[in-house]
Specification:
The structure is a single chain. About 5% of the residues lie in helices and about 40% in strands. It is mostly beta strands. The protein has a domain of about 40 residues. The strands form 2 sheets. Strands 1-2 form a two-stranded antiparallel ribbon. A hairpin with a 2-residue loop joins strand 1 and strand 2. The radius of gyration is 14 Å and the shape is globular. The relative contact order is 0.21. The mean pLDDT is about 90.
Length: about 60
């Protein structure tokens, strides 16, 4: 099941780089993911806002412009 709420601290990171984009003094939620989740983290809409995200499922690629 994927319902419920969890409290997570808001942390300001000095620099965040992903998908060829850099953000400074960027707010992120800090939450521990289980080791078997198979991911390191998630990128939220606040990181993608103002950009064009293209998802190429055929080639398994993402681009952000």
């Amino acid at each position: 099941m994927g319902s419920g709420t969890v409290l997570a601290p808001l942390v300001i990171v000095s620099r965040l780089s992903a998908l060829g984009q850099d953000r400074t003094s960027f707010p992120v939620l800090g939450h521990t993911l289980p080791p078997n989740a198979g991911i390191d983290g998630l990128i939220g809409l606040n990181f993608l806002r103002g950009q064009v995200l293209t998802i190429d499922f055929r080639n398994g690629q993402l681009s952000l412009t």
